[in-house]
Amino acid sequence: MKTFILSLIFILGSPLSWGSDRECENFTIADMNWNSASFIAHVDQFILEHGFGCPASLVPGNTQATGKELLNEGKPDVVPELWIHAMSEAFDQAVVNNQLLYAGEPFSDGAIEGFWVPEYMVKQQPELATISGVIKHAALFSSNGAKAPFYGCPEGWNCHISSKNLFKALKLEDANFEFVTAASGAELMSSLQQAYEKQQPWFGYYWSPTAVLGQYKMRLVDFESGIDKQEFKRCTSQPECTDTKVTMYPSPEIKTVITTHFARTLPRSVKYFARRGWSDAQMNEILAWMEENQADGEAAMEYFLKNHGPIWRRWLDGPAARSVKKALKDLQ
């Protein structure tokens, strides 16, 4: 909260705030490798170009690599959906030093992450709602006595670190579970979808808002530990930590992060980012549409802007909104 207030002081106190935009440069936006982030990146790109006359290029990224690049090199200029809790102290300091700004929050309802099992398994065996129950009934997740898979995040995602550390802290290997690293977000999603459609066992990490958790009834497993935010920052989210303790996931810190250079060059965009956001229901609807139509971030951007005008027009002033509307007509 303190760093967010400092961001606002910087923005509102700047002599460039809300003034005329300087000539645009070759700015970049992080197109992260999961659906919600890619969708938001394409929305931001379209609105910056057609609403503010500022073209920007999309560059591929993931949480760890993009976060480090942003801190060390000040690039990319805009990261629309950055899960920062693993690096929150470094980012907070960069905000205090006026290198970066927390420009907004993409999810107005927040988000949730943790270890999940299907609701149908909990109905059959209620003890699976807790981690002690999962360990007690580990055989339900196994086939012919083989190690039961625990589905973890892809490498390069912060949740790969946290889920692996918690897997160790919970001693799940001793309970005959095996940590399975998903090759991609799509593979992680597919593992859950296939299990659910066949009413088979599934145990692993996931987060919301996502199309899958919007579509399937899942139960967040209670670690019976409560939430220790300091422990999560100290160890759970750190790759080099070896003495991690059990804690539930705290509410994720998810920010839209921009460089102060970008904010100074295009000050009107800061007001846009501060207003721009989706509720869980809105984002889940978009993500479900992407899944049903096998659509990428660009297609989802076009679908959203064409069909949800009342949402995005609230983020823009009149001239910018009219410019975006005109550009959408040209897409047809």
TrEMBL record:
Cellular component per GO, a single term: ATP-binding cassette (ABC) transporter complex
Pfam families xrefs: OpuAC
Molecular functions (GO terms): transmembrane transporter activity
InterPro entries: ABC_Gly_betaine_transp_sub-bd (IPR007210)
ABC-type glycine betaine transport system substrate-binding domain mapped to chain residues: 28-307
Name of the molecule in the record: Glycine betaine-binding protein OpuAC
Recorded name of the encoding gene: opuAC
